[in-house]
Specification:
The complex is a heterodimer of chains A (500) and B (1015).
Chain A: H1 2-18, H2 33-36, H3 40-54, H4 63-71, E1 76-77, H5 84-91, H6 99-124, H7 129-154, H8 178-195, H9 210-223, H10 227-239, H11 241-244, E2 267-272, H12 287-291, H13 294-297, E3 303-304, H14 307-312, H15 318-323, E4 324-325, E5 327-330, E6 333-336, E7 346-347, E8 367-372, H16 373-388, H17 392-405, E9 407-408, E10 411-412, H18 425-439, H19 446-452, H20 456-461, H21 474-477, H22 484-489
Antiparallel strand pairs in A: 1-3, 2-8, 4-7, 5-6, 9-10
Helix pairs in contact in A: 3-6, 3-7, 4-5, 6-7, 7-8, 8-9, 9-10, 9-16, 10-16, 16-17, 16-18, 17-18
Chain B: H1 2-16, E1 32-40, E2 50-53, E3 59-61, E4 67-72, E5 77-81, E6 88-91, E7 100-102, E8 112-115, E9 118-121, E10 129-133, H2 134-137, E11 156-160, E12 169-173, E13 186-189, E14 192-193, E15 203-209, H3 212-215, E16 226-231, E17 237-252, H4 261-269, H5 284-288, E18 292-304, E19 308-320, E20 327-340, E21 345-359, H6 375-381, H7 407-413, E22 415-432, E23 437-456, H8 461-464, E24 469-491, E25 496-519, E26 536-537, E27 541-560, E28 564-575, E29 584-595, E30 608-622, E31 633-636, E32 639-641, E33 644-646, E34 649-653, E35 662-675, E36 680-692, E37 695-699, E38 708-712, E39 715-730, E40 734-751, E41 758-760, E42 774-776, E43 784-787, E44 790-793, E45 813-815, E46 820-822, E47 828-832, E48 842-845, E49 851-861, E50 864-874, E51 877-880, H9 881-887, E52 928-930, E53 933-944, H10 947-952, E54 957-971, H11 987-990, E55 996-997, E56 1004-1014
Classes of the chains: A mainly alpha (500), B mainly beta (1015).
């Protein structure tokens, strides 16, 4: 018996040893990049990942678009007990440790990294152009979209257009000059315009088409003052609007209704948020609580326009009514804005219909839009105005936008009236910019207009300033600082942008 | 025949026993049967006395009547030992009957301590080991046995993460060795590495292995120290029945003194003049706190014959939390069986089956914004002028500010139930191949099934908008271990003995889990048990991971007359968690001990009864990272297209082909000194450990698309001094024993990636804009608080320092301008620049204690015994987000009475700023407090009835006691309780977030009555 036991033990020993040799990990339920890409479907899955990164709390859910709002002269801080980082962005006294930048800067690069790895995955399949280029084009579009925002916000910055496998190797790169970044953006968008389809399935606007790429090309060229190219691209979009399915919504307000967001013909590019379904930061939007009244709706009451914006705006303009909430009905009682915790009219766009969100509109159903067809018309008007002055064609584009604004929820009004192209070129350009300010009010566009047109001194320190900031410094404030943490890791990024 | 086989098999043995290539002594010496009886000095027969042939592992134990029988050769020495008695040695001569009397022992040097893969006498110990005995572990009822270690052992810091019933504890041995990897010690339960602890009542002793000599045998898991748990075993003799029962009544340890309704109205109307009085005056702390209690019952039966011994125990622990809606129950069964198959082979089984059930309330919320406030947080913030319910019966919501539910509603309406079933079995077989050579094999299985259900009904704000929200998650963790080792005792000659140990071990852990949920229910009555009835399903999730560790280990102990002792330990570990290039690593240690008292020159020093020096040095590892972290990975990226989620991934982790263990190099120098005939025992240790190749989330340039990568980078140092003192002040009828321990630890970051500061934030999410709150900086302790220096309140006429988001008004917070001027290269010069910016932040404290201590006094006289146990921590700072939230005096929350001293134009001599609506919440020295405390942890008075009485009711012992826990705390901390942790769970945060406080479940003070009966 003893002997048998001993034998059993010996066998057990040997079995145990042979059973233990394998220390190689075989993960189940996680994706390994090196084996992930097998078909175009996988490339698509990787491209789509980038949209989730952008449709997030740090970018189009709150931080980035709010920062753009604060930076301009249309949105001021309401509740000044809010975090200092927001006040600093709004008041032009931020520093390189600003928390808003700390959130959206890395998030943009996660989107870029997602696009880069999708592009590399697409190329790695070695398929014929016709089978894969539409997906590679989509990845390039996302990269261009991200860098277009970044370069306007920060100027020179590292331009990474390849899939990163060894991040430490990037610790010594220098900033890429703005011009090179723009060249990369344009090249990506042109590839996208060539290879993207004219419409996406179900004509959705949350994935780009050739029309989307052209619209962004128009915007990029306008930003660079390349008015001929801007006009050409805008004209291309306008001429082919039927092909792409673009038209102005008859009711301006429809553009901001979450419940019909997926069927809007005016949207050119937007990010789809689904109500009450945030995962991590993805699909987590808080724009609505940011603009809602603190004491009456429970919102945060942070992003509140200066009183001048409301007072200055002609009340006959339907867009003013849509853009503002100046009276709230709470428990059947009318509460004028004088009873708001910040006694100013609050932003009304997005606040009236946010679909399935929580009580203060967080986790809404909105598709936050970055580009509407109205803006294409305004780009065409501005670019053509720069080339040829206020021609009938140029005024015609502007008048399409104005005509739609005269539809006061189904009732035709006579304001704003059509523009007569008899004014000077400068007057016309000013008029278009003014129309952009109102048509696109609070839509995170104004700051970029102020920057590209160098309006800062005028709009923040001038006599008619809507939101005075006497400390505005054009040599510093057109660019935000790169995060201090990035300069610590990579001293080659020094010096930071001027003034920081 | 057997001997022959063994000799033939020696080739195999050799593979595992590097040290035993030439093993003499395998042949048996000439032996005869020795018998006798063991009695105590009080004349009672002693069952269960261990009898060992010196220098071998051959032994036996006395039976019920104190009789023994053993085979021993003439000239060998029999060692009789029993816990609490002086060990006696008898040399076998021609006689074959030896009756032995054992004396009661007050010396601790003969105490047998459990170490890795064996035991050792304290006098033969070369490493640094603390031992905590059963009486200390069961001094008062605890949900988790580790809780009972608090204050009991030098170098061991135990803190509750939160005071909730059944909540987790943080245990640190000699400081936190890591920054981002776990610094939790390794638990070894009856040899089961990573086993679960049975209830404190079933534990015989806990040994804490601290230095490298003691821990290196556990190699890659030894760096954070090892807690060796030995459960109770039966001893030969008639069945012994123990019944222990206690009931405790509990209350919250402290409250904050908040504004009442009138004060709140005045405070609020100062800035919101039209604030409408809601008419009530509610003390929300009254609403949520109640008298809680613990009932704890345990029944055990133990005993045995000469071949079998058993210990079986059942226990029931039931805690009603001090906050409405919280409770914890634990049912557990422990069973230990040992069976001698024959003279050579014994087998045994340790079983633990346990169910825990816990109903939780939300505290320490990660974000207390709309609908997210927890019970304690809300009780401090919520408006006192609001009643419990509205007129329509619904619960009140905050009248201004974030719409949060009142705390009573959160406590009672929200359901959170966790049920966990644990089954742990450890089988072992011990085979005495020869008298000197023993083989042991173990097979352990531990499986833990848990399920958590959460339901947020429509009566709460968070559930209202979604018509109820239900989630269930469930999972199963399994741990299987097989260990095999040989122990060889070689008495080379009279003076030299050698013990060698060699073995190998394989361990596999798997974790799997899943979660599902849905929203929008017809009724609240279904709780989380009808997910299908929810109209809106939530995103389900599931996950699986597996880890394997394979190891070879060995130890060599050499003793010269027990005067000079040498120990070498080594373990060679392979772990699947690590990268393909670095799966294996080697962890050696060595130690030397010198029993100086045994030297001739000490012979006449009568004052000193024992004096031993110990010195050790060695390497241990920390492999506490999750599986698959070295592999590049795509993760799901939740993306909505066309109104619905789609398949989408993005890169989230980059590969690290070289990632490997953290290595801790520890030096220890210690002494064990006994004075006055062993009446005073002192242990002193100095240690210094440096952990290098930290498993560090190294920040990457974020333009790479990745925020960080786990790399082996950075160094942390812990060094310190430990003293522990045990004194038998008086003996005889009136006994007074004192135990005191004190530990000084200094933690310092020695190296960081590129030498750069690393800033990070830990504040609750809804305290927006706090941003970075802490810093890792070379030369400073891990997790130093980082913020502005608060300089009191601005007065009229002061020069207000400009700065974005900083107040520039009288009555506003004033901060110090300390930096901001840059040189030509853009580097900060440390010169003020006249502006307040983020450059003016500096280190404003840290949560590391200068020292921690425990002081225990036991008195006994006749049947009475009195225990007084103090425990404390000195020099640690607390950053209180709780007080930051309610005392910033901005916004809509209620505040403490401190608000009554706020700055007004007529009350200017104050450091409390004025009431406002436009002050940003900001981390500053204003919120950093001295967290030192001394606490009367336990005071207990017991009475053991005289034998005459107990025997008249047929019990052998009956003891009644009353005790109180945590009834006195001395502290300057202004928050509820200085014993706090916040945002401090999970490996990333467990070391770097020390000394934070936010809305914690308070610890309880208790009054206990209990009864112990033995039959």
């Amino acid at each position: 018996m003893k002997i048998n036991l001993y034998k059993i033990l010996a066998v057990w020993l040997l079995l145990s040893i042979s059973g233990c040799a394998d220390l190689n990990e075989k993960p189940i339920g996680v994706f390994a990049p090196e084996t992930f890409f097998k078909s175009p479907k996988d490339v698509e899955t990787a491209v789509l990942g980038a949209y989730g990164v952008i449709a997030s709390e740090n970018l189009f859910g709150r931080q980035f678009i709010c920062a753009l709002q604060f930076r301009g002269d249309m949105v001021d801080i309401g509740n000044r007990a809010t975090s200092a980082e927001r006040i600093q962005v709004n008041d032009f006294n931020m520093d390189s440790n600003n928390g808003m930048v700390g959130r959206f800067w890395p998030q943009w690069f996660q989107a870029i990294n997602a696009a880069n790895s999708a592009e590399a995955g697409g190329i790695s399949l070695g398929l014929p152009d016709e089978e894969i280029n539409h997906l590679i084009a989509e990845a390039k579009f996302v990269r261009a979209f991200a860098y277009y925002h970044l370069v306007r916000m920060f100027g020179d910055l590292p331009y990474i257009n390849f899939a990163v496998t060894d991040p430490s190797s990037l610790k010594t790169v220098s900033k890429t000059p703005e011009a090179e970044i723009y060249a990369g953006i344009i090249a990506d968008l042109e590839f996208a315009k060539q290879w993207l389809p004219n419409t996406q399935k179900n004509n959705i606007r949350t994935r780009p088409t050739a029309g989307t790429a052209a619209a962004y090309l128009a915007s990029v060229h306008l930003t660079l003052g390349q008015y001929q190219e801007a006009y050409t691209e805008a004209k291309f979009v306008i001429d082919n609007k039927a092909l792409f399915g673009y038209e102005l919504e008859t009711d301006y307000e429809d553009n901001f209704k979450a419940s019909i967001a997926n069927s809007l013909k005016e949207t050119i590019f937007a990010f789809d948020f689904l109500g009450q379904q945030a995962v991590g930061g993805n699909n987590d939007d808080s724009l609505v609580p940011m603009i809602e009244v603190l004491n009456l709706t429970g919102g945060y009451g942070v992003s509140v326009p200066n009183m001048n914006v409301y007072d200055d705006w002609d009340s006959r303009d339907y867009r003013k009514k849509v853009s503002f909430i100046d009276t709230l009905v709470v428990d059947g009682v009318k509460r004028p804005y004088s009873e708001f915790s910040t006694p100013r009219p609050h932003i009304g766009k997005w606040a009236r219909d946010f679909g399935n969100g929580n009580a203060i509109g967080r986790y809404s159903d909105h598709n936050f839009s970055d580009f509407r067809y109205a803006e294409v018309l305004l780009i065409a008007a501005e670019a053509l105005g720069e080339i040829n002055g206020p021609t009938a064609e140029a005024a015609g584009y502007l008048n399409q936008v104005r005509a739609r604004a005269r539809n006061w929820a189904g009732t035709q009004t006579n304001f704003p009236e059509d523009v007569n192209p008899t004014m000077s070129k400068a007057e016309f350009i000013d008029l278009v910019l003014e129309d952009r300010r109102l048509e696109l009010a609070f839509e995170w566009k104004r700051w970029y207009d102020i920057k590209r047109r160098d309006l800062g001194v005028k709009v923040f320190t001038g006599p008619n300033s809507l939101e005075p900031h006497p400390n505005f410094d054009p040599s510093r404030d057109y660019l935000m600082p790169l995060p201090a943490s990035e300069l610590r890791i990579n001293p080659n990024l020094a010096p930071n942008n001027p003034g920081y | 025949m057997l001997k022959f086989l063994i000799l033939r098999r020696r080739g195999i043995i050799r593979i595992f026993m590097l040290f035993l290539l030439l093993s003499p002594g395998i042949l048996l010496a000439q032996s005869k049967t020795i018998t006798g009886k063991v009695t105590s000095n009080e004349g009672e027969t002693m069952p269960g006395v261990s009898i060992l042939i010196k220098g071998t592992s051959t032994g036996t134990a006395t039976d019920i009547d104190g009789n023994y029988s053993i085979q021993a050769s003439e000239g060998s020495t029999l060692v009789f030992s029993f816990i609490g008695m002086v060990t006696k040695e008898i040399t076998v001569n021609s006689s074959s009957v030896y009756n032995v009397t054992l004396e009661t022992d007050i010396s601790q040097l003969d105490e047998v301590l459990v170490v890795g893969y064996g035991t050792t006498k304290k006098s033969d110990l070369t490493g640094s080991v603390s031992s905590v005995k059963s009486e200390e572990l069961t001094a008062f009822p605890v949900a988790n046995a580790t809780q009972a270690l608090q204050g009991r052992a030098a170098g061991v810091n135990v803190q509750s993460n939160n005071g909730d019933p059944g909540g987790a504890l943080k245990v640190r041995i000699r400081g936190g060795n890591s920054i981002n990897a776990s610094s939790d010690p390794l638990y070894v339960v009856d040899g089961f590495v990573g086993g679960a602890l049975p209830p404190a009542e079933d534990i015989q002793s806990i040994e804490v292995l601290k230095d490298a000599s003691a821990t290196a045998i556990y190699g890659s898991r030894g760096a954070n120290g090892v807690i060796m748990v030995t459960t109770k075993k039966g001893t030969a003799g008639k069945a012994k029945v123990d019944f222990n029962t206690s009931y405790s009544s509990q209350n919250e340890i402290n409250r904050l003194d908040l504004l009442n309704a009138d004060e709140f109205l005045a405070y609020t109307r100062e800035v919101i003049p039209n604030y409408v009085d809601n008419g009530a005056d509610t003390d929300w702390q009254d609403q949520i706190y109640r008298t809680g209690g613990i009932q704890n019952h345990q029944l055990s039966v133990s005993g045995g014959s000469d071949r079998v011994n058993y210990y079986v125990s059942g226990s029931f622990f039931d805690q009603k939390g001090i906050i409405v809606g919280s409770d914890f129950k634990r049912y557990s069964v422990t069973s230990n069986l040992n069976f001698d198959v024959n003279d050579k082979i014994s087998v045994g089984l340790n079983l633990l089956a346990r169910r825990t059930g816990r109903n939780g309330v939300v505290t320490q919320e990660g974000s207390g914004g709309a609908g997210g406030a927890g019970v304690v947080g809300s009780s401090l913030r919520f408006m006192p002028d609001l009643p419990l319910r509205n007129e329509d019966g619904s619960f009140t919501l905050a009248s201004i500010g974030d719409p949060i539910d009142n705390p009573y509603a959160v406590a009672t309406e929200r359901e959170e139930e966790t049920i966990a079933d644990l089954l742990q079995g450890n089988f072992f077989l011990n085979y005495d191949i020869t008298e000197d050579l023993t083989f042991k094999t173990t097979l352990g299985v531990n499986t833990n099934n848990f399920r958590t259900g959460i339901f947020v009904p429509t009566t709460l704000y968070a559930g209202r908008n979604v018509n109820g929200d239900a989630t269930i998650n469930s999972g199963k963790n399994t741990n299987i271990i097989n260990e095999n080792y040989l122990t060889y005792n070689w008495k080379i000659n009279e003076n030299n003995t050698l013990t060698a140990l060699a073995g190998y071990s394989v361990q596999k852990s798997t974790n799997n889990g899943w979660s599902a949920g849905s929203q929008s229910f017809i009724t609240n009555s279904v709780s989380f048990w009808n997910l299908g009835g929810g109209a809106v399903p939530k995103i389900p999730s599931s996950g699986f991971s597996e880890t394997q560790i394979a190891s070879v280990f060995g130890r060599l102990n050499y003793s010269y007359n027990s005067k000079y002792l040498l120990t070498f330990n080594a373990r060679y570990d392979g772990s699947s968690n690590f990268s393909k290039n670095n799966k294996w690593a080697f962890f050696p240690s060595g130690a030397f001990a010198w029993n100086m008292k045994d030297e001739g020159f000490m012979e006449d020093v009568n004052l000193i009864s024992d004096f031993k020096w110990r010195v050790s040095y060695g390497l241990t590892g920390n492999q506490a990272i999750s599986p698959y972290q070295t592999l590049a990975r795509f993760s799901n990226s939740y993306t909505i297209i066309d109104g619905a989620p789609v398949n989408a991934v993005r890169p989230t982790t980059v590969a690290n082909d070289d990632l490997t263990w953290e290595t801790t190099r520890q030096f220890d120098l210690g002494a064990d000194i006994a004075l006055f005939e062993n009446r005073l025992n002192l242990t002193v240790d100095y240690y210094r450990s440096v952990t290098s190749d930290l498993l560090f989330s190294v920040p990457l340039p974020s333009y790479s698309g990745y925020s960080s990568q786990l790399q082996n980078l950075g160094k942390v140092e812990n060094k310190g001094l430990e003293f522990s003192l045990n004194s038998f002040n008086t003996t005889g009828e009136f006994k007074w024993n004192t135990g005191f321990n004190i530990s000084f630890n200094r933690n310092k970051v020695l190296e960081l990636p590129d030498g750069n500061d690393i800033l990070y934030g830990s504040g609750p999410g809804h305290l927006i804009g706090l941003g970075q709150t802490q810093i890792l900086r070379v030369g400073e302790p891990v997790g130093s608080f980082y913020g502005w220096i608060y300089d009191g309140v601005y007065q009229e006429g002061d020069d207000f320092i400009p700065g974005g988001g900083f107040e520039q008004v009288a009555g506003g917070e004033k901060f110090r301008d300390i930096d901001g001027t840059k040189d030509a290269n853009g580097q900060l010069t440390g010169e003020p620049d006249g502006r307040l910016t983020s450059d003016d932040r500096t280190i404003i404290g840290n949560g590391q204690a200068k020292f921690i201590w425990g002081l225990n006094n036991d008195f006994s006289y006749k049947g009475f015994d009195l225990n007084i146990f103090f425990q404390g921590s000195q020099g640690n700072k607390i950053l209180s987000y709780t007080l930051l939230e309610i005392e910033t005096l901005s916004g809509s929350n209620n505040s403490t009475k401190k608000a009554l001293d706020r700055w007004t134009p007529t009350n200017t001599d104050t450091d409390v700023p004025k009431r406002t609506l436009s002050r940003s919440q900001r981390v500053s020295s204003r919120w950093v407090y001295d967290g030192s405390y001394a606490r009367l942890k336990n005071i207990s008075l017991g009475y053991t009835f005289p034998k005459s009485i107990s025997e008249s009711i047929s019990v052998s012992r009956i003891k009644l006691y009353v005790s109180a826990q945590n009834i006195l705390t001395f502290t300057k901390y202004e928050g509820i309780d200085p014993e706090v942790n916040y945002n401090s769970s999970g490996s990333t945060n467990s070391n770097r977030n020390l000394g934070l406080d936010y809305a914690s479940y308070p610890n309880a003070k208790s009054y206990t009555v209990g009864l112990n009966i033995s039959f």
